[in-house]
Amino acid sequence: MTIKSVILSGGSGTRLWPASREAYPKQLLPLTGEFSLLQETAIRLKNFSDCEVDAVPLVVTNEEYRFIIAEQLRQIGVPSAGIVLEPVGRNTAPALTLAALAATAEGADPVLLVMPADHVITKVDAFQHAIAEGAQLAEAGALVTFGIVPERPETGYGYIRVGPAVNGSASSRVLAEFVEKPDEDTARRYVASGEYFWNSGIFMMKGSVWLKAIERCNPAMAAACAAAFAERKADSDFLRVSRAEFEGCPSDSIDYAVMEKLQASPELGQGVVVPLAAGWSDVGAWDALWEVSPKDDEGNSSRGEVLFESSRNTLVHANTRLVAAVGCDDMVVVETADAVMVAHKSRTQDVKKVVARLKAEGRNLTQTHRKVYRPWGWYDSIDAGDRFQVKRIVVNPGAKLSLQMHYHRAEHWIVVRGTAEVTTGDKVFLLAENESTYIPLGHTHRLSNPGKVPLEIIEVQSGSYLGEDDIVRFEDTYGRTAG
Fold first, then answer.
1. What is the rounded distance in angstroms from the CA atom of residue 463 to the CA atom of residue 425?
2. DSSP code of 469?
3. Which of 160, 156, 252 is nearest to 198 (CA)?
4. What are the Cα distances from residue 198, in Å, to 26, 158, 194?
5. Rounded CA gap, 462 and 346, in Å?
6. C-alpha angle 395/235/219, rounded to 5°?
7. What is the pLDDT of residues 28-73, one digit of tens each?
């Protein structure tokens, strides 16, 4: 049996603001340890004992995250040749359809293990055992989902109601129905009945089974995905599908598009729920992260430089400076370079209201961090004022920025580490540490790192307009036209 992993990595994680932003969402953040949630998801695919899973996943994501995802996979030794790019977001059902088309394009028909990139699973052995059971059912033609064994009545999750046991299976149950997020009393009844599980959003089925099901349930979606995939183009590590065709695709989730229809339409295949008790969380809000994080004797959890004094059951994430929590009970404090969020743990779902207000006010704080990642490295906007901006720029070894020009600003570059290769007009020269140069307004220029260590420079911009969209690109290694 061949099991092909599919990682869906397109969400924005607004309830984990200010750490999660639209341009750098929660799946790309190291929230629980050394690695990002995306990296943890990929690492979880290695060293299965009960079955064999292809550890090189198909990743479905959007244009904006493509270079960050490729780099994060490279950091953990996972080849990034299977990254499918959605031209526009259309929810999880079209994303899975593109993945199924890619997995079956050469005539194979693997079992697909479909996972969001932003989940936490602390008991990997239990996860792998459940996947092995699900794989056998999926190989036989079932559409499998994984129901999280509920630890408490929870109003923040959707539920799955199950029916009788599946023939020949020790623990799997027939899928009866999906249920929306309940109120507290209903959640208590669900948990007490033993017939309900939390909806994990993890699925398994053969590629052909999914394609047949989506064609029957939503022919317009199946046709749009097939047409977009037929016009695909390979671009380095990425597979691009047709924007024109995909923009016409209906938007829907895997649950709504197919899984909820299985009981009424048995010809689609049998729906099966495999119980999963593996320390799972979708990390939907800061209180959920506190639930799965290591804690001290007082129930406090921290990341970064944090001091607790007379505090209990509190989560503090410090990214750039010391945070001291004094007399805090059931609180969440998240510090970043440009924002601080403080909330009672019972109100963390309301963080999305803050994000909505910032968006309505046109504030960029919902879109990007002060530190912005690019395919060549990153920059940090460390200071700004009227007609000037100061950036710390780090360029990876062997990388180069685009050959570009600005209409409204001039730039001064000072090398503080490494060696810079500078192109300005028809001149190309090297700058060593403590050397500098000036790029006049309107001059074509490029910054490259020819060395084997990261290049770090301080850039001082001056001019009438300093926005990132004041870039005219003449040549770019990464195929960008903007950003």
1. 20
2. T
3. 160
4. 21, 6, 11
5. 46
6. 130
7. 999 998 999 999 999 998 888 778 888 789 999 998 899 999 999 9
The CATH T-level fold of domain 371-475 is: Jelly Rolls (2.60.120)
Residues paired with residue 160 on neighbouring β-strands, in sequence order: 178, 197
Nearest to 2 by CA among 169, 135, 178: 135
How many CA atoms does the CB half-sphere of 183 hold within 13 Å?
Answer: 1
Residue 126 and residue 120: Cα distance in Å, rounded? Answer: 13
Residue 319, token pair as written in the block: 């990214």
Between CA 197 and CA 187 the distance in angstroms is: 10
Q: How many whole angstroms separate alpha carbon 354 and alpha carbon 360?
A: 10
Question: Which residues are CB-contacts of 171 (< 8 A; sequence separation ≥ 6)?
Answer: 133, 165, 274, 275
Residue ranges, comma separated, of all CATH 2.60.120.10 domains in the chain are 371-475
Cβ contacts of residue 377 below 8 Å, gap of 6+? Answer: 393, 394, 395, 396, 399, 449, 454, 455
Backbone φ, ψ for residue 83 (5° rounding): -110, 110
Alpha-carbon gap, residue 400 to 479, rounded angstroms: 12
Residues 6+ apart with CB under 8 A from 449: 377, 395, 396, 397, 398, 399, 400, 418, 419, 420, 421, 455
State which H helix or E strand residue 461 sits in: strand 455-463
Alpha helices in 312-391 (DSSP H): 351-360
Q: Where, residue-wise, is CATH 3.90.550.10 in the chain?
A: 3-281
pLDDT for position 289 = 96
Q: Give CA–CA dist 118/38, Å, rounded.
A: 6
C-alpha dist (Å) from residue 41 to 7, 8, 81, 124, 300: 8, 10, 17, 10, 25
Which segments within 141-254 are labelled E, that is strand? 143-148, 159-165, 173-179, 196-206, 233-235, 238-240
Q: Which CATH class is domain 3-281?
A: alpha beta
pLDDT tens-digit map of 278-331: 999 999 999 999 999 999 999 999 999 999 999 999 999 999 999 999 999 999
**pTM (2 decimals)?**
0.91
Integer CA distances (angstroms), 385 to 283, 364, 482, in order: 37, 16, 24
